[in-house]
């Protein structure tokens, strides 16, 4: 894989300080790269990544966002194009997201805390390769952008032909499933980040029992078998 001088890089992260840090360290991580933009929200990032005048060649995608998930961002972009390379980044264990983000069409995942690994991941993905922290992309199924785009396109065609719900609904009748409320969505997001009912309740100034109610309603609405299953469905969107 050759050098990638002048490659345009963008990032989505709900922590603006993290975006500033990424922009500042990019020249050391990927020499010759050109910073395009930083977005703090999922919808904004998808819109800018798909627009021809703001489309980067490489997009760094944080896994935990305020208005969605990094997995969802990757899937929405990859369904539409293979022209954007995507590298998932996270402050949590990469194993938490690796398989799901590979299925969503990203080319790799790396920990934000591991700077040498991030440099290696950026250079590998920018040059057209795939990156797995364990050194085995086959372990989680990371594919090139072209292969992942083709796979998701084929899956969408199969599902539309079979009359099933959109990809990412985990095959449980997503089209007919009630939409999650704001608090239900936020509860799943915060639980996915590792917060407890008590910690979420303290942040919101409510009783832990109320947080549990939001979580249980989310499980019911998603048709999930358990809270863990509901979180997995949420993260796959």
From TrEMBL:
Bias kind Gly residues: ranges: 162-174
Region (Disordered): 154-180
GO BP: phosphorelay signal transduction system; regulation of DNA-templated transcription
A GO molecular-function descriptor: DNA binding
Signal peptide positions on this chain: none
Name assigned to this protein: Response regulator transcription factor
Provenance organism: Bifidobacterium vespertilionis
Superkingdom field: Bacteria
Alphabetical list of Gene3D superfamilies matching this protein: 3.40.50.2300, Winged helix-like DNA-binding domain superfamily/Winged helix DNA-binding domain
Alphabetic keyword roster: DNA-binding, Phosphoprotein
Domain HTH luxR-type positions: 173-237
Domain Response regulatory span(s) in chain numbering: 8-127
